[in-house]
Amino acid sequence: MPEPLKRKKKDGTQYERPPEIEAFLEKLEIVESSERLRQFETLSKTKPGYVPSEVLVYFLRRAGIEGAKTDFEKIFRILMKRVEQSLCSIIADSRIADARGIREEIMGRFVERIAKDYKGSSSYLDFFEIRFDKAFAAFRISALRQIGPSNVETIPLGTDEDHGLEISAEIEAAAADFQSGNSSILDDPAFRFELTAAIDNLPDDQKRVIGLLLQGFQIDSKDKNIMTISRILKCDERTVRNRRDRAFKTLKTILQGENV
Amino acid sequence: MNENTMPSEEEVLLTFAVEPTHDRKTLERYLSEFPEHSIALVDCSIELMLDSTRSNNVVESTEDTVEHAWQRFQAIMSVDDDAPLINPFAKLNSTAFKSLAKRLDITNLLLVRLRDRAIEPMTIPIRFIQKLAAELELTGDAVLVFLNGSPSMISNHSFRSSVKPMVTNQITFQEAIETSQLTDSQKNSLKALED
Question: Which domains does chain A have, with CATH numbers?
Fold first, then answer.
């Protein structure tokens, strides 16, 4: 039986791994170590036989506890390869100045967390046994905020400082359709990928507005009990609309390109 | 999360990240509970949403990055936790850290590199060390001792690598100036301290 997680939730209950991760652990616990390591080597998630990173973290920690140094080093290296791969795709050299330095800094911080866990002074890595990719995304965001978001300047696809924008009715309609999630184009993976890349490249203030709209938040409301974008971002609703409009203008190329 | 202490931003984001769902209601709950981390939570929610639609292309990894990570791990493991360690940056929280960078007119990234002793101490201009020491309310010697303290030769042999243990890669102050996202004006000010 896999060791249960130690970390507790706010309500005092213990965190649990998702059932599919538990199933993986049970299956791999009875496999020879060398065979397990061979299975860990698959890097691409789309390849058959890929073992989730949550499972690697579990066996990394177990190797540490059991003093299996060779296994520990091998799993550590495989995990770091995956981490680097993930960072390279998001903090790409083509998009961010000194991307390599930033990636190394984030990786270094993650290594520190692993070392702390190894020394037995933390249950921190429990998060990474539950949902590795999501936990790592959160870790990355937190690290980038400390390095200084103002210093991590993305290179935009196209900038437009024009404030007096005229957003065509077509774009407004397409955006409204997009926000409501009704548009069939959202089912198209290629479109979604392009749209994600376009949103990714928006300046932070516009990206936050679009991100919150996509999550179903409204810009403003007279009802003080409703959490609106204006209240979350602590800015005037006209500022929010302005940021939204500027974002739409940037995104319109892709929306129009798909003949929405 | 420990109920007796205020969770850090990182801890809040991680707790949010491992929630089974990340819909509007989940985000609203966290925004209400942790208003001090609202922007970080918004950024995290957007990142999680975009992450699910990003491509999963395998990017060619470089062995030296993985090797560097392993060496860093070994270096951390070699530190004796019981030995008294005076880290002048330890007392700084995130805000104080950023504020220090601002006062020194450098980027947070450069300050992070100094904190992590990722810069060869011998290449750091003494005038800059004095400036840093003054801001940290320490003597120049105390800061120099800290900057010289690590990264060090890996002395703990409990983790044997297939490669010879070596000093963790450090860069020169000059290299750090060029790769720490400084403005031209900041670069020139720092270069002037070298004279």
Answer: 19-147 (no CATH), 169-257 (1.10.10)
- For the question of an ipTM over 0.95, the answer is no
**Stretch (H or E) spanning A202:** none
Task: Look at the block and give the residue holding tokens 């819909």.
Answer: B23
For residues B98 and B184, state if they share a domain.
yes
Q: Is the pLDDT of residue B45 over 90?
A: yes
- Partner-chain contact B43 A76, CB within 8 Å: no
Residue range of the domain that includes B142: 66-192
Question: Within 10 A of A183 (CB to CB), how many other CB atoms are there?
Answer: 18
Chain A residues whose beta carbon lies within 8 Å of the beta carbon of residue B61: 43, 81, 84-85, 88
Facing B70 at nearest CB: one of A76, A146, A215 = A76
Token duo for residue B23: 């819909």
In a domain, B58, yes or no: no
Task: State whether B39 and B83 are in the same domain.
Answer: no
- A57/B75: higher pLDDT: A57
Share the mean pLDDT of chain A: 83
Both B74 and B160 in one domain: the answer is yes
Residues of B in contact with A97 (CB under 8 A): 181
pLDDT tens digits, one per residue of B119-129: 877 788 878 88
pLDDT tens for each residue of B104-113: 999 999 998 8
Choose among A45, A158, A194: nearest CA to B50: A194
User: Measured between alpha carbons, how far is B132 from B95 in angstroms, rounded to an integer?
Assistant: 17
Closest residue in A to B159 (Cα) is A69
CA distances from B169 to A17, A78, B9, B70, B150 (A): 37, 21, 29, 12, 11
B contacts of A43 (beta carbons < 8 Å): 58, 61
Q: Are residues B83 and B177 in the same domain?
A: yes
Residue B4, chain A, CB below 8 Å: the answer is no
| B23: number of Cβ within 10 Å | 11
Answer yes or no: do B55 and A153 touch at CB < 8 A: no
Helices (H), A91-159: 99-118, 126-130, 132-147
In the predicted structure, residue B154 carries a pLDDT above the cut 60: no
Residues B133 and B180 in one domain: yes
Does B44 sit within 8 Å of A138, measured CB to CB?
yes
Task: Tell me: do B26 and B79 sit in the same domain.
Answer: no
- Number of domain units in chain B: 2
For the stretch A119-130, pLDDT in tens is 876 789 999 999
Residue B61 lies in a domain: no
